Each structure stands twice: as C-alpha cells, then as structure tokens.
Amino acid sequence: MANEHGNLSINSQNIFPIIKKWMYSDHDIFYRELISNGCDAITKLKKLSLIGEYEAPDDIEYKLDVKVSPKNKTIKIIDNGIGMTKDEVNEYINQIAFSGAEAFLEKYKDKTNEDQIIGHFGLGFYSAFMVADKVTIDTLSFQKDATAVHWECDGGTEYDMKDSDKQNVGTEITLYLNEDSYEFANEYKAREVIEKYCSFMPIPIFLTNEDEEPKTEEIPEEEVTEKDTVIETFIKEAETEEVEKEDGTKETVEKTPAKKMAKIVKRPVPLNDIHPLWTKHPNECSDEDYKEFYRNVFHDYKEPLFWIHLNMDYPFNLKGILYFPKINTEYETIEGTIKLYNNQVFVADNIKEVIPEFLLLLKGVIDCPDLPLNVSRSALQNDGFVKKISEYITKKVGDKLTGMYKTQKESYEKYWDDINPFIKFGCLKDEKFAEKMNDYIIFKNIDGKYLTLKECLEENKEHHENTVFYVTDETEQSQYINMFKEAGIDAVILTHNIDQPFITHLESKNEGVKFARIDADLSDSFKEETSEDELKEISETLTETFKKALGKDNLNVKVEKLKNASISSMITLSEQDRRMQDMMKMYNMYGMDPSMFGANSQTLVLNANNELVKYIAEHKDGENTTLMCEQLYDLAMLSHAPLTPEQMTNFIARSNKIMELLAK
Ligand SMILES: Nc1ncnc2c1ncn2[C@@H]1O[C@H](COP(=O)(O)OP(=O)(O)OP(=O)(O)O)[C@@H](O)[C@H]1O
Hints:
This protein is an alpha+beta fold. The chain is 35% helix and 22% strand.
C-alpha cells in the first residue's frame, strides 16, 4: 500500500484534550478497553474458526499479551484475534471511532462528573489517548491474502497509515505513554489494574516486562513439553543422608536419586480466570468452590454464611453469586461489595442504579451482558429493564431466605443474628421484599428461642394482648428480664440500631400491634390485685418523702404491690417518649432540650410489698431516710440506663456511707 496520510473525520479541532480532561478520574480504564477489544477480536476469530470460515494453525493458542517497558515507557497489547484490513482500520478507527467520539462528546458535554457513563463503556479504542501521546496499531486480518497495516496517530487529528511487517494474524497496539502516565508501564501497576478490570475476562491474559531478562524455573526433564524454551539441562545430584544402623555404626543412604533436570523459561501464568464460578452451572460447583471464589475475590477470610447462585437466561441474561457475609462485631460496618460485570468484563462496584440499595450490604458478583451500560447513571435509574433486573435479584434473595426458613429452619435461626440487620433494612427499603419476608421475620426471646411475630403474640396473648416486650440491652435490663422470667412473661431481644425503625415499620404494617421496651410499663401480671384506696395513703407519704429527699419536685412516683417482694424500686419510661429521645440521639439533636420529648416521662415505681419501702413509709422523717431514698432511686436508675459520672460518684460515696452505718 502506498503510504497514506489523512485527516480523521471529525469536526472538532482536537478531541483528545477533551477526552483526557473528561476521563480524569479513571485513567487506568484504557487497559480494560484495549484488552476487552483484544478479547472480542479473539472471540470473533474463534467463532469463525468454529463455523469453518477460518482455518487456524494447529498449534494456535488464543491469548492476549500485555508487554510493558518501563524503560521505553511503552505498553503493547497484543492479541491473536481477527485483525483488521486497511478498509476496516479506515472504517472502525479513522471514521467510526472518531465520529463516535464526536457524537459522544456532543451528548455528554454538559454532563458533570457525577453523571458519568457507567464504567465509561463505549469509550473503546481512543481511551488510549488518555495516557498516550502516540498510539500505533499493527494489524493483520485473518482474511486470505490480507496485507498487514501499520497505523499511527500522535493525538492530533491526523493519522498515517502504511504497510506493516506483522506476520501473524491479530492486532498489536503500542502506547507511547505521556509524561503523566508513566506509572502504567510499571509491571506492578499494570498487574494491579489488569487484575481489577480483567480478572474474569474469557481469554487468558499474560503480562511481561520487556526490560527484564525472562525469569526461569527448574523442572524434571521428563516434564518438558514442546512449548517450553529450554535454556540448559543438568543433573541434579542425589541427596543423601547419614543414618545410624542397629549396631551403632553410621551409614550413608540415598534420600532422593540423581535426576535429569531442565532449566526453562518460566511458564507464563495468566492473570485471569477465564471460567469464573458464576459462569458454571450451580450443580458443578461445590461449597469449597464457592468459598474459595469468595476468598479470592473479596479477600475476606471469614467464611460467608451462605450464598445464592443466580443463573437466568430468559427473558434476560444474568448470572452471578451473592454471598451473605459474616458480620463479626456489632461495630463493624456492614457495607458489602457487589461487583458488576458485563460479559466477564468488570464495570464497577456497587452500582446503586442496578442493584437494590439493601443488597449492597451483601458481597457478590453479577454479570449481566444485556445491561445498557453506555447510558448515564440517571438514565439507568429510570430504565424499565434495569428495574426488572433489580426486581429479579430481590426476588431471588427473598426466595433463598424463605426457602431456608421452610426447609432448613435450624440454619436460618443459626444465621439470624448475622443476617437480620440485612433483612430488616431490606424490609424498610423495599415494599415487595417486606411483603415476601413478612412471615419469616423471627425474634429471639429471652430464653433464646426464635419466634415469628405471630407466635410471639399468640404465646403472650393472656398476659398482654397485641404487645411485644423487647430488650435493647441484656445487661442493663437484667433486673427487668428476671422479673419477666419469674412471671412467665416473654420478651424478645432487639439490640441492633436498625431495630427501632424496624419495629415502627412493623407497627404500621400490623394494626393494633405495639412494641414496648421491657421497662416501659409494668404489666398487671407483676402486680397483686389492689384497690386504689388501699395504696392511697402510702402513695402520698412515699411520693412526698422521695420528692423531698431527692429534691425533685416533678418526680413521678407510683406505688404498686409487686408480687416479688424483693424488688424495692424501679424506673419505667413511656415507650413513646423514649423513642423520641432515642431518635434525637440518633440524629444528633443534642442541642435540643430533651424535656421537649418528655424527660419527665420517667416514673419511679416503689414496691409497697418491699420491707425497705415499707420502712421508709413508716419513718419518713427518720435519720437515714434521705440516704435510703437516694440510694433506692439510683438503684432503680442503674438498671434502666447508665448513671452519669456525677451520679456514679455520688452513688459510690453513698454506698460506702451505708456500709459504715452497717458497721457501727
Ligand atoms: N484489537 C482489535 N482487533 C480487531 N478489531 C479491533 C480491535 N480493536 C478495535 N477493533 C475494531 O475497532 C472497532 C472500534 O473499537 P472501539 O473500541 O472504539 O469500539 P467498540 O469496541 O466497538 O465499542 P466499545 O469499546 O465501546 O464497546 C471495534 O468494533 C472493532 O471492530
């Protein structure tokens, strides 16, 4: 071919500075674009060979080579795929690609970075100019008698094209890196980027550093194959060791015999796994396979609890694996990672527009070739097809959980403590998921048994209809728990932050059902039957005495005859007011006055059956009455919420004083 010099068919003077600027955040993406182009080219050639349109050499080994040279500051991406003829270079590179770029820029010129195209799909070949001043292509088409083409462009609007001396079918792209991008020719950086984007591409990818001598390895000579490059052969001497015989004399014996060895050029190891687990049929995968895949992809050495293998062909193509991770501590964030792939090419992590928000607490991979990824994020959000995908994933997760409840209840209960924040968050975020999970939400009660809401209500119907009592802190509320246990009344344990909004949600969904913290109210079951008159006098005396002793005029005091005479005093706190206060704390509204939401909603309950309480009522002006009132109040407060530092200091000082009095 005669040398050809041409103008790229675009109008804008020079699109490259714009591409560079626009793509500023993710420069490394060029690796993905060029490698996936190479993989596509190989896949196409394999197909042609399969249908007899191309006769591949017998020893063909389809692969993609990435060669970096930190010295020359170049990167070569070499595939043995379909290649391009001169006309094709003209069509795909000189015209389509660049006119595509123009259309692309036109479409997105007003968009801000936040509205970037998902994973920048559609950037293709010219993403190379984000990192390179000059790019060359050497390509030989698979077509009979094709002439190899050399193309080059230095980032302006002009290109040069001439014959190339490339001998093998395929394409070699060379990037001459610009000053800001030399790091991409570093072998370790290259490896990191390729592993990020290309770990599961369907063609083996090999990385070499052209500046380094080839690495070598030694293997037994009989294991050498045709593909190996043998540098030398040698005899590895026998290994011997000295052993002691029965008669005490020593003898030298051969441990391993002498062996013929070969020093060969290190066999290349691909950077990627071309058959990732999600592409396999679930029947072919063992538990160990799933766990290993999880370890490799998420670098999480805690085993996942269980997983869901998504495998759908119709009406859309979607494959993937979702893992329920083990949450180790209460304080660990429970944010997961869902990696989105498009035909085994990594797109991005945690794309909220495709994956329902609550599922982002899981870890997993999703490969959906049908996703329209060349549109902006906001367009994706409103895409009906994307909604269907998202619904499908949600449904599958729901199916897995309900199925487990029905057939492996024991496992479900075992995992519940770990998975319940996820399920509850899902119910709050997704109406359909909430409906599906409605009968499968379970509650651990104070005896460690798991019950559904229906079962909770049914079991406690006689004691407190339509009310579920709950514990938020088993240590702090232990006195209440004991009381409940003694009276044969149940309460459930709800200690996670998500539980407060979740029970509010349950109350709104189940009319008439109320949740009340274990210290919210005293159930009638704890009390003896009395008439108001019977307690009137003692009530008045105690109220007055306590108010005076504590210096709290607005203290609410309630005198009850509790069946358990050993309990002297306790605090109850209106459920509604407490929830408001909790909410204030959660949203950090500390500046506001808590009394707005009933700081006065605490009630000091005194047990008229308790000897000490009786004593106080009978000795309201006694020498130590104030001391006793203060101590009883603090004791009640202690099992309700932690004391403030000041209160604690007083409490300890007073306790010491009481001991001194006892010692007298
Ligand atoms: N390594 C290659 N071997 C053969 N043909 C190639 C190669 N790289 C690019 N091409 C041809 O050039 C065309 C344009 O490539 P480009 O990467 O710009 O866009 P694309 O691959 O079609 O789309 P996208 O990358 O946006 O998914 C390709 O469709 C392909 O026909």
